[in-house]
């Protein structure tokens, strides 16, 4: 069952969620951007010597944002060709 107040709407074309539709989704996106900027600023100079750690440091917050967007979206994720079904009909 999906939440009553989604943070993200599913995309009309393609797979996944689009931009946030509520302030909680925007806060999650801003936190993600700040974490990535911190990783790039702190870990960026050492990326050549530790590439696996650098990639891991970027993949983890990205996976967390994707899971939050999946959990807080208004419909199940699936490939769409322009038609968004009403919630509960997927």
Percent range for β-strand residues: 5-15%
Note the total helix count.
2
Runs in which pLDDT lies below 50 for 5 or more consecutive residues are none
The residue fraction in helices comes out at: 40-55%
Cα shape = elongated
Derived structural class = alpha+beta
Per DSSP E runs of 2 or more residues, the count of β-strands stands at 4
Task: Compute the average pLDDT.
Answer: 86
| Oligomerization status of the protein chains | single chain
Q: Summarize the helix and strand pattern as letters.
A: EEEHHE
Which strand order does the major sheet show? Answer: 1-3
Ends apart, CA distance between termini: 11 Å
Please give the largest β-sheet.
Answer: 2 strands, antiparallel
Protein described:
It is a single chain. This protein is α+β, with helices and mostly antiparallel strands. It is 47% helix and 12% strand. It has helices at residues 23-43, 51-71, and strands at residues 8-10, 13-14, 17-20, 80-81. The strands form 2 sheets. The protein has a two-stranded antiparallel ribbon. The radius of gyration is 16 Å and the shape is elongated. The protein starts with 7 loop residues before the first strand and ends in a 9-residue tail after the last strand. The mean pLDDT is 86.
